[in-house]
Amino acid sequence: MSFSIQGRTAIVTGAANGVGLAVARHFIDRGANVMLADIDEARLVDEIGEMDDDGGTARYFAGDLREKLTVANLVSATIDAFDRIDILVNASRQMEVSDPLDPDDGAVENLLRQNMLNALRLSQTVARRMIRQAEEDDRDDGPRGSIINLSSIAAQRTQADLMAWSISSAALDQATRSLAVALAPHRIRVNAVAFGSVMSASLKGAIRDQSDLRDEIIGNTPLQRIASAAEVAQTVQYLAADASGFTTGQILTVDGGRTLLDVCEASAH
Description:
This protein has 8 helices and 7 strands; from the N terminus they run βαβαβαβαβαβαααβ. By secondary structure, the chain is an alpha/beta fold. The chain has a 7-stranded parallel β-sheet, sandwiched between helices. α1 crosses α8, α3 packs parallel to α4 and α4 (107-137) packs parallel to α5. The longest helix has 31 residues, at 107-137. The model is unreliable at 264-268 (pLDDT under 50). Keywords: Oxidoreductase. One of its GO terms (molecular function) is oxidoreductase activity.
């Protein structure tokens, strides 16, 4: 059973900051070739400049993945740089407070597009490339690719002002399952990591602004702490590696036990 991703090529979206950046760094440190994709080109340039060349190779692609042409260009740029795509990590996520009683609130449509439809479109495009690669390699056995979506425990929680975030997370989970079934005959695996509160820059800022938030999160987490982004990245590596070769259509929860508690209004970051 191998957890190695050395020499494999991955696209990681949302890679300019947060968990997406942590996944990209983790993959590069373990010898993978990674195309970091994000809309924030300045941050991508800064992060690429700080990455160690002793592991894998890092390249970046800046663009708005809500545009179909941008999706096609990202895949083409990755093929030009590395010749193939073995792993896709859809880590681009957006959270937005919404009013569940306002019919003019566009948060649901916005987050469905940002958090689910963008990931679905890129997954479909990358999957077609993975299928062509397998045909060109003339391989009859072994894995052909792994797609990992970063989701949230918000799909299982109820918090009124995060309705749009919860709906988009649940939709992404179901898209994960549906794609897993569709791509299983091609031996392309599709899974998701649903995580709770992770000590990212955005959460650090929220904790600074809300003095009781840290204690609230820890109090609602059986393991009594907040996860690091590296812990999510390690789970993503497992799903990308051959060690999880018989795992598909699963939503792996990394939340310190938080979803085991019956807390309706717990913050679902």
